[in-house]
Amino acid sequence: MKKEEDKQIPATMYVTHIPENVKFSEHFSSLMLSSDFMATAMEVSALSLLTGIAWVYKIQVEHSKTLFEVAIAMWSLSLFKRIYNNYLEAVYCTYPKNRTQPVKEHALKAKKDLAGRDKEQLEILVAQDRLNFISRFCLDLFIYFMIPGFYLAEYSQPCTLVRKVLQLLLNHYFMSFSMYWFHRAQHKNPWFWKNIHSLHHWAKYPVSRTTYQDHWLDNFGMAVTGHIYAQILFPLDGHMFWFSRIVRVCESLEKHSGITGNFNLAYAAQQWLPFAAMPYHHDWHHEGYKGGNFSFAALGGIWDQLFGTRRTGRVPQPLNKTFAGSKNEDQVQFLDTSFFDGPYTCFIPIAAITVIVFLKVSMGHI
């Protein structure tokens, strides 16, 4: 009986099969990314308590939006993640021709889930989900109270729409730059790879819900070096800040979705950018030794091109011509012997960025 039970992963754990004969609308049945009731209950309880306290005490830090407004935005972002995740998984199951890898690559094996992870790995990731929420929730509150103006209410001087758009582009390209180097360092440093980042790469054939299934320190580090560093150096006002977060959520879920084409709203919108990366770049990144020592960029893709780590993957040629963004991206030479690929020197770029961020914060509100 024991051996028979081991052949199956509990149905409540993540995704274990590709649903057949399921209507598109029927995929929107769960708001739990990991099917973990505890993690979902913790999130609902914490956000409810924060919202109640913020409403009763009218808390507002100088130069920032009210804590109540921030709490409502956190609620909205949390719900949006789940709805958009289910949308992408519905597309994945309903339109197999749009998958970045052939259907046969997802044939289930004993004790494996759809993304290629075993039961023990899934149980570890459920625990990490809970730590992910706790750490990110505490980080958001810490930033709100310790860095006045991070959740900027409005610019001190009138700002035109054109300037706001340019500020958004600067913010996103810098976010991509800093996350590129932090991500690349986690592949190059043996300890970080073995103990932290490899958990995320247990998903060899990612689907959208695998996006945030990683070690909590991995998620935490990406948040700090990503939108927090970008907001400090290139601040966005309230509405543009949350719009930026939504775009980032879409991009993160889409690149792990296992699908390509215009179903991916954020990637379809950014394909006109120079060397724009697409989901199949990241899909290919999840395969091979240490996942793949290429395609590290979170947004855009220009940093992979500039630093020699860009690779298309195995998407069909017609889609290459449509979305690739570079006619020679398969011929890029990988810089595996680069000075910044050493086990310690790989952290120099992100350490330099951290110093710059610290100096600006030490000068006062952003």
Detail the topology: elements first, then pairings.
Layout: H1 2-6, H2 37-57, H3 67-94, H4 119-146, H5 161-188, H6 190-195, H7 216-233, H8 238-255, H9 265-270, H10 279-285, H11 302-306, H12 317-323, H13 348-362
Summarize the structure.
By secondary structure, the chain is mainly alpha-helical. It contains 13 helices and no strands.
Cα distance, first to last residue? 61 Å
Radius of gyration from the CA trace? 21 Å
On the 0 to 100 scale, the average pLDDT is 81
Helix count, per DSSP?
13
In helices, the fraction of residues equals: 40-55%
Q: Largest sheet, if any?
A: none
Sequence stretches where pLDDT stays below 50 over 5 or more residues: 1-16, 315-336
Number of domains: 1
Would you mind describing this structure in some detail?
With 366 residues, the protein is mainly alpha-helical. The chain has one domain (2-362). Helix content is 52%, strand content 0%. The chain is built from 13 helices and no strands. The chain has helices spanning 2-6, 37-57, 67-94, 119-146, 161-188, 190-195, 216-233, 238-255, 265-270, 279-285, 302-306, 317-323, 348-362. α7 crosses α13 (348-362). The model is unreliable at 1-16 and 315-336 (pLDDT under 50).
